[in-house]
Design a protein that fits this description.
The structure holds two protein chains of two kinds.
Chain A (H helix, E strand, L loop, with lengths): L10 H4 L24 H27 L3 E5 L5 H8 L9 E8 L3 E2 L3 E7 L6 H5 L3 H4 L28 H4 L31 H7 L7 E7 L9 E2 L2 E8 L10 E7 L9 H29 L3 H5 L1
Antiparallel strand pairs in A: 1-8, 2-7, 3-6, 4-5, 4-8
Helix pairs in contact in A: 2-8
Chain B lengths: L23 E4 L3 H5 L15 H12 L3 H13 L10 H33 L2 E6 L2 E6 L8 E5 L7 E7 L5 E5 L1 H4 L5 E4 L2 H4 L4 H6 L3 E4 L11 E5 L2 E5 L4 E2 L4 E3 L3 E8 L5 H5 L9 H36 L15 H16 L6 H19 L13 E2 L11 E6 L6 E12 L2 E3 L36 H9 L2 H12 L4 E4 L5 E4 L3 H12 L2 E6 L3 E6 L2 E11 L7 E7 L5 E7 L1 H4 L8 H16 L3 E10 L1 H16 L4 H12 L4 E12 L3 H10 L3 E5 L4 H10 L9 E5 L4 H21 L12 H9 L5 E6 H7 L5 H10 L2 E5 L3 H15 L2 E6 L5 H6 L2 E5 L6 H5 L2 E3 L4 H39 L12 H11 L1 H10 L5 H6 L5 H4 L6 H26 L13 H23 L5 H21 L2 H6 L9 H5 L3 H28 L3 H7 L4 H11 L20 H7 L5 H6 L10 H12 L8 H14 L8 H9 L23
Parallel strand pairs in B: 15-27, 15-31, 27-30, 28-29, 29-30, 31-32, 32-33
Antiparallel strand pairs in B: 1-8, 2-3, 2-4, 4-13, 5-11, 5-13, 6-7, 6-12, 8-9, 9-10, 14-33, 16-17, 16-26, 18-19, 20-21, 21-22, 22-23, 23-24, 24-25, 25-26
Helix pairs in contact in B: 2-4, 3-4, 4-29, 9-10, 11-28, 11-30, 13-14, 17-18, 19-28, 19-40, 21-24, 22-24, 28-30, 28-33, 28-34, 29-35, 30-35, 33-34, 33-38, 34-35, 34-38
Classes of the chains: A alpha+beta, B alpha+beta.
Chain lengths: 305, 1248
């Protein structure tokens, strides 16, 4: 064409070669590992997994069995207090309740005391968000803008500290019921370091539970004097200052004494689950072998396909 | 040669405000006058945005996508505090990411459109403005302008030809861009304007054209030129259409009648439909289902919430009062529905569409980068022009292929010949043994001949020896080739000969003669000069008995210098062998054997014969001829009878075999594609004989085939009858093969269909354009389709571009199969656009097809790589990707559903909100993308060796509704374990230091960690091809997860944003617990082991072919495959005509009239002493006296050209339809696979 100059130069001119590069990447020839599911790998996987799961399961069951645990439901025993508390006008009346129990055997080692709550939905969405971490960190925050609603201010307009539903529903069998009639700086009047927002009970409570049934660490048995080895057998009494009504939402309260091992407290689930999966894996290994052997006779069809 | 780069898709239609243009008035050289009609100018615009409009328009377009709007809706929901169960950024981050990626892609695309628009619009053309020629850009050309074109230039707009450098205003064009026909065509200016040769005259030209409005009919034009109070009718014969190329014409002037979008080329290029793949459609359906599922889950959980709030929540209000404005459990349930919609929305991940696009883009790049699809000769790599269709390449069932330029190179090569019973042309080694394909011996050396064409190659030296030894038969053979043709020669300088052949076959024959020493040098209307072995001999040309479709032969009658008159004839074997002198019987037998051999190799054959004529006989015959041609009525019949009479009792000389050069590797490709269960239909504008010949040479048709049906009916009834017969035959065949079909006497058409599905034996169908027109009518299309689909191969010849599209549409409509159309010319554009996938052959001169196509490369053979390697992999990868993607999102999301039952249906999420934000875009995106881009199941060479590997794609096996449900089930299974195992463990668990373990944050971290590990192990299982990149992404994702986890839970971030990063210290504490790790391990084992077991058992019990191929390299199938591909088809005694004439009649007359003689060639000849303006006049007088042409000089070319015109399009046979009609029913039709064309034994009635 005569007017060639008016055209952009042909692509061939700008790029000396339009031929694609011969790189392994561009030609899709990258070196690669091509794993195959062969009988050997599959069977060894199954048997090894089976063996592993079985051994872990047995270990877990054995160690879980060594845990001593006592769980006492006191929701019924303290029903009088519960009724008293349900009437909010009685908020300033004290109510005490005594729970007796007997240890038939010694509980050796560290003994932990938990309070357990049932049917208390700490994992409810509105509950979980109802807190102000900035406030807890000691920042000066605008409570109205935080996610604490409706636990933001008292009726007289002073901001709640700590704010939010979590803090204001704190389990307080020694402290007082909701809305923090007792200020946060009086949580522990004896230990300076365990007061205010850094109070252990408070911290533990603020760590919301994943489920509606949960237990929170309350105290540890101090291993002094006759308790140096743990709790010896005998009769004990829990003295409960009842402040936390649960009957209205059909909740239950427990007190739990337990020891721990490397895998935590006594929960047989994991051990059993491991044993079951180990067994199933090993059995599957055998089934696969059987199927494969049975099929091998007709192997010719493999080729024909 | 520069090629136009316009993009015919998305042409903005002519804006027709209120009224359609009824007629067009164009006045030459009158811009003001023409402007008032507001015709479209020659500027084209395919781009969508400019800098200012980009953002709003693009965003508007993007939010028209349902998915994007949906996510926007979610975002708005999240801003409502009562509903918001997630932070706003969990949605906005992915959404912005998606919108940005798409916007960048759109911007890039539009940039290239702008560029290509500019390129076309800024092309230069010479426009006559104010009496001078000015260089103007194409876009500034207006209707009514007169523009000048030069040789080999593209026509800028639809022009009315005014005058040209050639005598009589003739001008030659190539219309390959428009209709795919590669032979040159002649256009002629009307006589009054043909004198306007110089600018001064043209500047004064003020004719006005009144013509039809813009339309898409390429072969029709109706209009009138009003000039100087006279009316001149205009036809298509006077038009030069945009897209044509001017050839062999130094210059010409034309008046712009239609410009830009109004041109016939643009009108013909329909709007591009946005193509979607079947996976796309399936995906959309599935996404809708998932929405339904999402709503169901939302409803269930909302009901749960209402009940819970009613039973429990109400009593719990002392610790957790209801939100403001929520007064009933029912309303709370309603709100929680929306909250759950928000947190469960990840079942339809926003990143799905983007990831799919990214993967396709990667696959497109692999196609672009493929060295094995790069054609070094044309320097063109393959190009994926759309990036949205890749996986559909793995599902193709029907291929519609153009012939010329696609299957063939449109290069004719003189390859063999038979002279006097001796066959030449086989490759021979030194000892004279036939050489099979493989190493090539040296080509024959033609250096003895200074006029030889250096491009010509011949491999058999014995032919040249025969010439040199003076074998009279061989001499006569080449003499015939050098005399009997309509080729024009041009000698630019001494010895530099150029032949302008109307058809490439003729060119090949004359070139062969030239190289063997019989050089056709020049011609005048009355003479032909041939350089015979160095000696110039001028023959007197007495008559050209022109070719036409019925005669299938042409002859010349020449008088040699000795005064002897001889008729030389070449033509189809079927015709010529019957017209030989009985003396030739023995030679005929041998030659027939040779012909069969040639035809079996797919060569196009011609038989050559001569006849000596007595002077007196000739004189008498010539007189009758003159009378006949002067006859006012039935002229053609009378001429035909005369021709028929003289072409009798001829002496056989031999036969030629021309190779219609196939593109490299075409037969192999077709064989492999056929083995891959892909049906190939050839749709060509070419003639039946040529098409069928190519069918044989590329092994689509073989002589092993039970039968090849030919449908050539002209009426509905005939076509229906022929189709019915074909089906009956097929059924007879399958019945006789004992297929066990109970054959009833009366078969309903539906039954017929089902029976046809299981036809035994191989059949092929050849259908003509005019029959196809009937077959495509609504009441017959199903019948036609069923017949055609029962055949192994289908060839449609003489089809129009529109019919090509119709055929594709038909298959698309009824077959629910993926179709692919491949072609190279503008005539294939409609079909390329209609098919699911369009492939353009690039590197040719035309580029229309490429621009309309989705993929382009320069060789047909690359198609097998595109489909069997790239397509197959793309499909596989996409399916694996989708399976995994749905799996991982269900596993991720469904955990929330289970958790709902434990958290009072409060729409509390299981995971940290950052985990939700990042899960899809960081933690799990790259490994699956790497798999989607790089995975390979079998090496590429295996896909070629085992074409059957392609079948899963066609049958849609790898991703369908069933597979989808399996993935979903696996995802749900995983989510159940993912939730309930930690739940079981955490229920009453304490840590090893006595503190509680079951706090929400530890649970969240445990579940999230096991989820990330499980899906990573799963992707590891799915990945079959671990490149370094896969390793990097999989391990990197895990590493990134832990790195981000620890960062998010770090003290520092908490100090900065205490309300945002609440999980402070959690990761450190939780992940230090052995119990947590044991839980994660158990979850992983339990989630993965069943998958491994199922996968292995499936592999063991029901291996896919690809599995087998992976394990065993040597499968019997392979050898079978190889055999079938490479086997040469032996032909036994079949007799079909493969004669080679691809041009149309009419040129003989042009030559004899001298109208197309270039001045230069006449100057060279000894006949015309000096070119002058008057020589044509003398010529006319002479011709008039000899009576070889009709009386009116201007009427002659019109007439012939009209015939030629008619022959181009199917549906209208040039000669009496009555004859063809008679032929249809004649019994000679179906004995041989390809019927011989019938000839009329008697002239039709009334010819006398």
């Amino acid at each position: 064409m005569k007017n060639k100059t008016s055209f952009p130069p042909q692509e061939g001119e700008t790029h000396p070669s339009r031929c694609p590069d011969n790189s392994a990447f561009e030609q899709q020839k990258l070196p690669a590992w091509k794993p195959h599911l062969t009988l050997a790998t599959v069977l060894s996987t199954f048997f090894l997994t089976g063996a592993f799961c079985l051994s872990v399961g047995v270990c877990l069951i054995l160690s879980a069995n060594s845990v001593r645990e006592i769980q006492i439901d006191y929701s019924e025993k303290c029903s009088d207090c519960s009724k008293l508390r349900e009437n909010t006008s009685n908020w300033n009346k004290e109510c005490h309740c005594f729970v007796n129990f007997t240890l038939k055997e010694d509980i050796l080692g560290d003994v932990f005391m938990y309070y357990g709550l049932k049917n208390f939905y700490q994992n409810h969405r509105r509950y979980v968000v109802s807190r102000s971490d900035a406030q807890l960190l000691g920042r000066n925050v605008n409570i109205q803008k935080s996610s604490c609603a409706p636990f933001t201010t008292y009726q007289n307009g002073t901001p709640m500290a700590p704010c939010g539903a979590i803090a204001n529903s704190m389990f307080n069998e020694t402290a007082r019921p909701p809305y923090w009639q007792k200020p946060v700086y009086l949580l522990d009047e004896e230990d300076e370091k365990n007061n205010g927002y850094v109070n252990d009970d408070f911290i533990i409570w603020m760590r919301v539970s994943a489920f509606a049934t949960f237990r929170n660490l309350y105290r540890r048995v101090s291993r002094v004097r006759q308790f140096a080895d743990g709790l010896p057998a005998g009769n004990y009494t829990f003295h409960i200052s009842y402040n936390f009504p649960v009957s209205k939402f059909k909740g239950r309260k427990h007190v739990i004494l337990s020891t721990v091992v490397w895998s935590g407290g006594s929960n047989p689930f994991l051990g059993i689950a491991y044993v079951v999966s180990g067994t199933v894996a090993a059995l599957t290994g055998f089934v696969i072998t059987a199927i494969h052997l049975k099929l091998r006779k007709k192997k010719t069809y493999f080729q024909k396909e | 040669m520069t090629v136009p780069r316009e993009m015919p898709e998305k042409w903005p239609r002519v804006p027709e405000p209120g009224r359609a243009e009824e007629e067009r008035r164009v006045r030459a050289n009158a811009r003001e006058y023409n402007e008032k009609f507001q015709y479209a100018n020659n500027c084209i615009k395919t781009s969508k945005y400019n800098i200012l409009t980009f953002l709003p328009v693009n965003l508007f377009e993007q939010f028209q996508e349902v998915a994007n709007t949906y996510f926007l809706f979610l975002l708005i929901l999240q801003l409502i505090p009562q509903i918001s169960s997630l932070s706003w950024f969990t949605t906005i981050v992915p959404l912005v990411l998606v919108l940005t990626i798409t916007a960048v892609k759109d911007a890039t695309d539009d940039y290239f459109r702008h560029k290509s628009d500019n390129q076309v619009n800024n092309r230069q053309s010479q426009v006559l403005i104010g009496g001078v020629l000015r260089q103007e850009q194409w876009m500034n050309v207006r209707v009514g302008d007169i523009i000048k074109l030069e040789n080999n230039q593209f026509v800028a707009a639809d022009l009315l030809l005014l005058s040209s450098s050639e005598p009589h205003g003739l001008c030659y064009i190539e219309t390959a861009e428009l209709d795919g026909e590669t032979n040159m065509k002649v256009r002629q200016a009307i006589p009054v304007t043909s004198e306007l040769g110089d600018i001064s005259k043209l500047a004064l030209f003020d004719g006005e054209v009144i013509c039809e409005p813009p339309n898409n009919k390429l072969d029709k034009f109706g209009g009138t030129l009003y000039w100087k109070d006279n009316k001149y009718p205009l036809s298509n014969q006077n038009m030069l259409l945009r897209g044509c190329v001017l050839r062999n014409t130094e210059w010409c002037f034309g008046l712009v009648v239609f410009a830009g979008p109004d041109t016939k080329l643009m009108q013909n290029s329909g709007r591009t439909k946005f193509k979607r793949t079947s996976i796309d459609r399936l995906m959309n359906t599935l996404v809708l289902w998932i929405f339904g599922f999402l709503v169901c889950m939302g409803v269930i959980l909302a009901i749960g919430n209402a009940i819970w709030e009613h039973e429990v929540g109400v009593c719990f209000q002392i610790y957790l009062p209801w939100d403001e404005g929520v007064h009933s459990a029912f309303f709370s349930g309603f709100l929680s529905f929306w909250s759950y919609i928000i947190i469960l929305n990840t079942v339809v991940p926003i990143s799905l569409y983007v990831s799919v696009e990214v993967i396709r883009l990667g696959h497109s790049y692999f196609i672009n980068w493929d060295k094995k699809m790069y054609c070094a000769k044309r320097r063109t790599p393959a190009e994926a022009r759309t990036t949205t269709l890749n996986e559909e390449l793995g599902q193709v069932e029907y291929i519609f292929s153009d012939k010329t330029g696609t299957l063939t190179q449109n290069i004719m090569v003189f390859s063999k010949c038979s002279v006097n019973g001796h066959s030449y042309g086989d490759m021979q080694d030194v000892l004279g043994h036939k050489v099979e394909l493989g190493e090539r011996p040296e080509p024959v050396d033609f250096s003895f001949n200074p006029l030889a064409d250096p491009g010509f190659q011949f491999w058999d030296p014995s032919l040249l020896e025969a010439v040199k030894l003076g074998d009279p038969h061989v001499h006569e053979f080449f003499r015939l080739l050098s005399l009997c043709h309509t080729v024009m020669s041009e000698e630019k300088s001494e010895g530099e000969l150029y032949y302008k052949a109307q058809s490439p076959d003729e060119g090949a024959l004359v070139t062969a003669a030239r190289n063997f020493g019989f050089v056709f040098r020049s011609r005048t209307p009355k003479t032909i000069t041939v350089q015979e072995l160095g000696q110039a001999i001028t023959y007197q040309l007495l008559a050209i008995l022109d070719f036409n479709n019925i005669r299938k032969r042409m002859s010349v009658i020449v008088r040699n210098p000795q005064g002897k008159i001889r008729l030389y004839c070449k033509g189809a074997d079927t015709i010529l062998l019957e017209r030989l002198h009985p003396l030739n019987q023995d030679l005929t037998n041998i030659t027939t054997d040779h012909l069969n051999e040639y035809a079996g190799e797919g060569l196009r054959t011609l038989v050559l014969a001569y006849k000596d004529l007595e002077e007196c006989y000739y004189q008498e015959w010539a007189e009758r001829l003159q009378r006949a041609s002067g006859a006012p009525e039935a002229r053609e019949d009378r001429l035909a009878r005369l021709y028929d009479e003289v072409e009798h009792d001829m002496m056989l000389l031999g036969a030629t075999a021309i190779e219609d050069k196939l593109q490299q590797g075409v037969p192999e490709t077709i064989a492999i594609l056929t083995l891959a269960n892909i049906k190939i239909w050839v749709l060509t504008g070419d003639k039946q004989e040529t098409a069928v010949n190519i069918g044989y040479s590329c092994k689509m048709l073989t002589d092993d085939m039970t039968e090849v049906f030919v449908v050539t009916g002209h009426t509905v009834l005939e076509v229906r009858e022929e189709l019915r017969k074909a089906r009956e035959k097929m059924m007879d065949g399958s019945r006789s093969m004992g297929n066990g079909f109970s054959y009833q006497e009366k078969l309903s058409s539906s039954k017929l269909t089902s029976v046809l599905e299981a036809i035994a034996g191989e059949y092929a169908l050849v259908i003509n354009g005019h029959s196809l027109a009937h077959a495509l009518e609504a009441d017959m299309e199903v019948e036609f389709l069923e017949t055609a689909c029962a055949c192994k191969a289908v060839i449609c010849c003489r089809v129009t571009p529109l019919q090509k599209a119709q055929v594709v549409e038909l298959v698309k409509k009824y077959k629910k199969a993926v179709t692919l159309a491949i072609g190279d010319g503008a005539n294939d554009v409609s079909m390329i656009k209609t098919a699911h996938i369009g492939v353009g052959i690039s590197g040719q001169e035309g580029i229309q097809a490429v621009l309309a196509s989705d993929y382009s490369f320069s060789q047909f053979k690359f198609l097998q790589r595109l489909l069997l390697v790239h397509g197959r992999w793309s499909y596989l990868r996409m399916c694996k990707f989708l399976c995994y993607f749905f799996y991982k999102n269900f596993a991720f999301t469904m955990v929330h559903f289970w958790f709902g039952f434990f958290c009072g249906f409060s729409a509390q999420t299981v995971y940290d909100q950052y985990f939700i934000t990042l899960y899809n875009i960081v933690y799990t995106s790259l490994p699956v993308l790497a798999m989607g881009v790089f995975d390979q199941d079998v090496p590429e060479q295996r896909s070629m060796e085992y074409p059957k590997l392609y079948e899963p794609g066609q049958l849609n096996l790898l991703f369908n509704k069933r597979e989808f449900f399996i993935c979903i089930a696996q995802g749900i299974y995983t989510s159940v374990l993912m939730f309930f195992i930690p739940y079981g463990v955490f229920a009453d668990a304490t840590r090893d230091d006595g503190a509680q373990l079951a706090d929400y944050q530890s649970f969240a971290v445990t579940v999230a960690t096991s989820l990330v590990i499980v899906v990573s192990v799963q992707i590891g299982l799915d990945t079959g091809f671990w490149t370094a990149i896969n390793h990097f992404f999989i391990w990197g994702s895990l590493a990134a997860y832990f790195a981000i986890l620890f960062t998010m839970h770090s003290d520092g971030l908490f100090q900065m944003f205490p309300n945002q990063f609440r999980f402070v210290g959690n990761a450190q504490n939780t992940l230090a617990q052995p119990t947590v790790w044991l839980t994660i391990t158990l979850t992983t084992v339990v989630c993965i082991m069943p998958v491994v077991a199922f996968r292995f058992l499936k592999l063991d019990l029901k291996p896919e072919l690809s599995d087998t191929v992976r394990y065993t390299q040597l499968v019997r199938k392979k050898q079978k495959t190889q055999h079938r591909c490479m086997r040469r088809v032996g032909r036994v005694g079949s007799h079909r005509s493969g004669y080679a004439f691809s041009h149309q009649e009419g040129f003989g007359e042009l030559i004899m009239s001298g109208k197309n003689m270039r001045l230069s060639s006449l100057a060279l000849s000894s006949f015309a002493p000096r070119p002058s303006t008057s020589w044509i006049e003398t010529l006319r007088k002479k011709k008039g006296s000899e009576g070889s042409a009709a009386s009116s000089p201007s009427a002659v070319p019109d007439k012939t050209l009209k015939d030629g015109q008619r022959a181009k399009w199917p549906g209208r046979c040039p000669q009496q339809p009555l004859r063809l009609l008679l032929c249809q029913y004649s019994p000679c039709r179906s004995k041989s696979p390809i019927p011989r064309e019938c000839i009329m034994p008697e002239p039709p009635l009334g010819a006398r």
